Amino acid sequence: MPDFTTEELPLSVTEDLVPSTAPKPACTTSIDFDGLLGTPLLLQDDPTECGGQLWPGGMVLAKYLLRCKTAELEGKTILALSLHPLRPSQIHLTDLPTIVPLLTLNIALNSPPTPTTAHVLNWGAPIPNTIPSPPDILLAADCVYFEPAFPLLLQTMRELIGPDTICYLCFKKRRRADMGFVKMARKVFEVRAVEDDPDGEVWGREGVHLYEIRCKQKASPG
Are 214 and 157 spatial neighbours (Cβ–Cβ below 8 Å)? Predict the structure, then answer.
């Protein structure tokens, strides 16, 4: 996720415009994705942080991978650009410094049998040496939400997506500008809308978009 200060944001909303409300308390929930997980996942949230909650894109992407891609994920190194509830063979979670403690807590709550680690990653910044690059699978759920951050997100994806990497991008469209990121990505990558999800018609009506992204294939010499 990008790291913005209050001064850098294009619009600040104060209590003069929107009265403050008491924050909801953090809680731990159990989720099995409609029975797709044999053992339910424990998920601790933080309602005070935008990145500390499970959003529609993460739900849709997790269910799609569990239902349709389990075999393909086996033995793969997976890197997630945001909080993600999937439990593959090996996973590296990334987010802002304020969210990494929550990621670490969720890892501890579930005691995954395979290595799972949390890392700080600011979009547009150099990729830390502790993060595998390129990964086999790159998950980007609910990362498309703030237009000024699109170039930073795209730059990070360009650094992480290798010749054999498969990236899954999933987000809920909330404003017209959100689709602008997909147009930007098509100039750099091969971008294909996912059409083999049995739930596709349902989440499509809710404005959720799911794409498979790969490096563009170099043209063979004639």
Answer: no
- Which among 98, 86, 218, 97 is positioned nearest to 140, based on CA atoms? 86
Identify the bridge partners of residue 118 per DSSP, sorted by sequence position: 93
50: tokens are 């935008």
Instruction: Read off the pTM.
Output: 0.82
Give which of 30, 47, 48 is closest to 39, Cα–Cα.
30
pLDDT at 117 (0 to 100)? 92
Listed residue (190, 179, 180, 182) closest to 218, CA to CA? 190
Task: Name which of 197, 164, 188 is nearest 77 in CA terms.
Answer: 164
Distance CA 21, CA 1 (A): 26
Torsion region of 184: left, alpha or beta (phi above 0 gives left; psi -120 to 50 gives alpha): alpha
Using one digit for the tens of pLDDT, what is the confidence trace for 48-96? 666 556 788 999 999 999 999 988 888 888 988 864 444 455 789 999 8
- Nearest CA to 133 out of 168, 167, 182 is that of 167
3-state secondary structure at position 168: strand
Q: Please state, in angstroms and rounded to a whole number, the distance separating the CA atoms of residues 203 and 98.
A: 30
Q: In which residue ranges of the chain is pLDDT below 50?
A: 5-21, 83-87
